[in-house]
Structure formats: structure tokens, C-alpha cells
Design brief:
Number of strands: 0
Helix content: over 70%
Shape: globular
Strand content: under 5%
Radius of gyration: 19 Å
Number of helices: 13
Largest sheet: none
């Protein structure tokens, strides 16, 4: 038991949603990782706080979908977080009156704002990297951002997106090829080309890796 991972010794999402104390422990275990995920995608502390809260509310409805064999709790939460953030982006796009978002926000204490602003500052490189990936098709960008920016393994990224690992490998290969072409052509800005080159270098080339493991 001493060598087991701490996460495996604790109650999972399904147990946590049935017990307020377990859910509080689950929240404390993952809130920093979820907030960092959100901070890589938004640059406003109120929005970051609201989305983080919405993600944990969504856990109440999705707890039964977690399967430990497909990846860690964090990877599973990232899948939920992607859906919440995407829904928010669509909502904002449809919003005709921007002021409604401001007046409808939960008020934050000054200390909360400072803490979240620190997170936003720390994750600004991640937001720049995501911006550089915007030109990729959605499916390819989603795989690459989870692996390069959010540091998931390919199996975890596939689980977070609800796709097969072979599909994730194909999309990752296409994304790396596209970024390598952009970095070489000089079509992007210097900053974006630097990010593209970094993504190409840091994203794992899984073609041989999974053949060796017998998973291809």
C-alpha cells in the first residue's frame, strides 16, 4: 500500500459526489490544476473563477463517467473543463449585450482577485501557445493543446476528448506536420513561429512509441 499513488487511495468522483466531505476533499485536491487549465484560456479573474466553479458543478452530473483505466482524475477533469470553456465561448459569442456579463458576476474579494491574477500571469505563456495553434483544425488543435500545453499523455488526451487513441495519434501527427510547415515557411509571425517550433519539438512523435508498445 505504501507504494500506491495517493490519488488511488482517495475516493474517486463517484464517491465524492455522494458525500459533501469527500467532495470538499476532491475539490481541494484538484482546484489548482483546474484553475491553471482555465487560466491558460481566459485572461480575466472573474471569468476564471466562474468557470472553475462551473467545472466542479459539472462534476456532479458527470461523476459516473470517470473510468480510472482511461487516465487520471485530472485528465478526466480537463475533458469536462474543455466543454465548460467551449460553452462559455459560444455563450459570449452569442451575447449581444456585453454589460450583462459584468453585472451578473459573482463579486470576488480583493485577495481572490490577486490570487487569480497571479495564476493568469503565470499561465500567459500557455495562452500565447494556444493562440498560435488557432489556425489548426479544431480536432488537431484540441489534441495538441492537451499534450503540449496541458501536459497530458496521448492516452489521457484521447480519453479527455472521447476519441480513440489511434485517432488522437493521427490528429497529433497532422498537427505537428502543419506546425512544422508553418515554422519553415515563415508564414506566421516571428513569435508564433517560435511557439509553433516549440510545439513541434515538444509534442511526442508517437508513431514508433506505440508500435513498440504494440498499441498501433
Amino acid at each position: 500500500m505504501d507504494g500506491a499513488k495517493p490519488e488511488r487511495l482517495r475516493s474517486g468522483p463517484a464517491e465524492a459526489v455522494r458525500d459533501p466531505e469527500l467532495f470538499e476533499a476532491f475539490y481541494r485536491r484538484h482546484v489548482d490544476a483546474v484553475l491553471r487549465f482555465v487560466a491558460r484560456r481566459v485572461d480575466d479573474p472573474h471569468t476564471a473563477a466562474d468557470l472553475t466553479a462551473e467545472i466542479f458543478l459539472a462534476v456532479l452530473d458527470s461523476a459516473h463517467t470517470y473510468q480510472p483505466r482511461l487516465g487520471s482524475e485530472t485528465a478526466w477533469l480537463y475533458g469536462i473543463a474543455r466543454n465548460v470553456v467551449s460553452s462559455e465561448r459560444r455563450r459570449v459569442a452569442r451575447e449581444a449585450e456585453r454589460d450583462r456579463r459584468f453585472f451578473g458576476r459573482r463579486l470576488l474579494e480583493p485577495d481572490d482577485i490577486v490570487r487569480i491574477e497571479d495564476k493568469l500571469d503565470a499561465e500567459s505563456p500557455g495562452r500565447r501557445a494556444l493562440a498560435a495553434l488557432e489556425r489548426l483544425p479544431e480536432g488537431e488543435r484540441a489534441v495538441l493543446e492537451l499534450i503540449v500545453v496541458d501536459q497530458l499523455t496521448l492516452p489521457e488526451a484521447a480519453a479527455a476528448l472521447g476519441i480513440r487513441q489511434v485517432t488522437a495519434r493521427v490528429r497529433l501527427h497532422r498537427a505537428r506536420k502543419a506546425l512544422r510547415g508553418e515554422a519553415g515557411s515563415g508564414a506566421a509571425s516571428k513569435a508564433d513561429s517560435t511557439v509553433a517550433s516549440t510545439a513541434v519539438e515538444t509534442a511526442p512523435d508517437t508513431s514508433l512509441l506505440y508500435v513498440r508498445r504494440g498499441e498501433a
